[in-house]
Amino acid sequence: MIDTIDQVETPGLFFSNCVSGAGSYTTEALYFWQNQSMPGTIIKKLREQKMLKQETVAKAMGISQAAYSKIENNITELTVKHCRILSKIFEVNVYEHLPDDFEISRPVKAKTTEE
After folding, report:
1. Domains of the chain (ranges plus CATH)?
2. Cα separation of 103 and 100, whole Å?
3. I need a surface site. Which of 19, 33, 53, 96 has the fewest CB within 10 A?
4. Higher pLDDT, 28 or 72
5. Alpha carbon distance 10, 44 (integer Å)
6. Where is the HTH cro/C1-type domain (predicted)?
7. 4 has which bridge partners?
């Protein structure tokens, strides 16, 4: 079981693989993003840094402005699809925005390879 981000071999790949859908980190990236205490606060900050309106981001995500507002207000959890879209819009790696004391709250299965 992985208890902290420090135990992850390649933490920087989490969100990039979430974006591409490649690798074994997609689910882990989603858990990191969802379990962050205030992901909506981070998303709002990123949106404001890009000087984008909620309506603009919502349209790019294929959701209403009201639904997007619920994400920023931590009412609605993010999906993998949302992670992918937001990462492209904001051009970010989620790992860069996690707090230093962030911990995974549930076990994560590691991908195994057959030789």
Report:
1. 5-97 (1.10.260.40)
2. 9
3. 96
4. 72
5. 26
6. 43-97
7. 103
